[in-house]
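Budget justification, computational time. The allocation requested in the original proposal was used primarily to generate structure tokens for proteins on the priority list. As evidence of use, we reproduce two of the resulting records. The first is shown immediately below.
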Amino acid sequence: MKTNKNAYKVKLGIFVSIGILILFIIIFFIGSNQNLFSSKFKINTNFRNVSGLQVGGQVRFSGIAVGTIESVSIINDSTVNVVAMMDKDVKKFIKKDSKASITSEGVIGDKLLMISQGSSSAPEIKDGSFIQSMEPVEFDDILASIKITAENAEVITDELATMLIDINEGEGTLGKLLNDEGVARDMEKTMENLRQGSKGLEQNMEAAKHNFLLRGYFKKKEREKEKAKKEAEKKAEEAAEERAEKNK
């Protein structure tokens, strides 16, 4: 009987020891994840709207988790103060002109605080310092903008459809012009007159070339054209010879 009690006590002791060990392991992992065992420093920033950012949320710098949100508190009706606790190791990389913004992990993921890289010439931030913020773009505002754009596109489409129907039915000034046979005939006559005028001009130019008084002028123009042609051919030959020399 005594042996059974001793065995029970041993088993109970082992069970309790294992439970305590598991508890310490859980505390260690939670502490490591929340950066509880490393040196810390604080930063402050203000937003008009934190868009669902919560205490315990991640703080990231250059895409790397470097801290957590310690507190989110309302200062007044237009200002919300956010205090972030960050690893001391990244303090030297955060400058006074760095900015804080709120983003989400994925499209509908948890909200997190993103710290931007400042300029290399700016001084290092101090513990408890305040940095500027960039207000987040609300998803509802994006949806509202898309809705307005879609409504405008729908109105434009309806107006275009109405205009095309009116044109096909001969309504309006443009519809009457496009569907009026008289206008079409007038346009054909105008084009025919232009063709005849061009033909007459060509005939007049040909006659002028044979005119005694203008013959010298046209011959001069032909010589200039021929000279320009020969110069172009000469330049082309020289360029071909240069390429041939380079290729040797």
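The second record produced under the same allocation is shown here.
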Amino acid sequence: MAQPQRPLQVPDISKSTYSGGNTRLAYASSSMQGYRSTMEDAHATIENLDVPTNTSFFGVYDGHGGCAVARYCANHLHNKVFEHQDFSCNLPNAVRQSFFRMDEMLRNQAASKELTGYGSGSEYWRTAGSSWLRCAPCAQGPVYCGPLAEGCTACVVLIRTNEIVVGNAGDARCVLSRNGQAIALSNDHKPNFPDETQRIVAAGGSVSFSRGSHRVNNGIAVSRAIGIAYMFLGGDLSYKNDKKLRPEQQLLTCSPEIRTEQLTGDCEFLVIACDGVWDVLSNQAVVDFVRLHLNNGVELSVICESLLQEAITQDPPSMDNMSVILVRFLHSDDNRKAATSGTSNAATRTRRSNSG
């Protein structure tokens, strides 16, 4: 694994913010580097992934060891969901299989060049140079076999008519507000959680506590992620390349936990955010914060930026990168229409950046 980043003494609080929507929903997203020395988060917001089936897609990707895999997933995962044969008839399975497809694609030569283009660790050239023997000891030349020390967690949400489908691998999180009650639509995947520990031990690994977190083989602090094939602690220990095990049985798996929820009239909004937000704010605190601002007529984009600012001013503050997507459901009743003032331009997508 890459060495931990040295935190900035003064956080970078500039924010990159987008907003948009369609006739069914309005959304905004915002991201902030914070105290981290680089920005490793990425996200995707596609309000009209497929118009005939009324499908929207939103995803937050929290990079580890660099931004490359997170950005790669933000560019490709939603397309793989859309292209899957079960997209129209079995959306949960299409989401599940697309997570595994990401790990497969990351091993392709085309992916290696794209990863290198993001400049977060020169995955292609480093792997094809000093590290390639680990992957192909008998090969005649450099062989690329996937990112060794970069990866990302992923929490994606698809909204289709009256159904919400959530796929999560890692510790980003999706929370729904139903009449002001926070409902977690995803579970965090930490090595010390019983089901995760059971899989890790069965795969021949161990869970330890060091550097403030529970870790897989004293390495990564999450138990599910896309990418990251190896850890480096005085030698190479494979996270995902045990040929005797299926992908979902590996020490570190990209297998997503899938949850479906009915979208009813009392569903107000949902929040998808990386652990930089949830580490310092509870599910209910975030729902209360968003709801208060919505009731005061604040725009979704401003709410997202204010939420990130709230997280970084906690005591102690969030020391991680932070990204958030806020999706508000536009119901047909008159009261809901009145409540959505300030988001009437939801059919258009806008972007803004600010330094505060």
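A brief technical remark on that second record: The domain at 12-106+147-354 is CATH 3.60.40.10 (Phosphatase 2c; domain 1).
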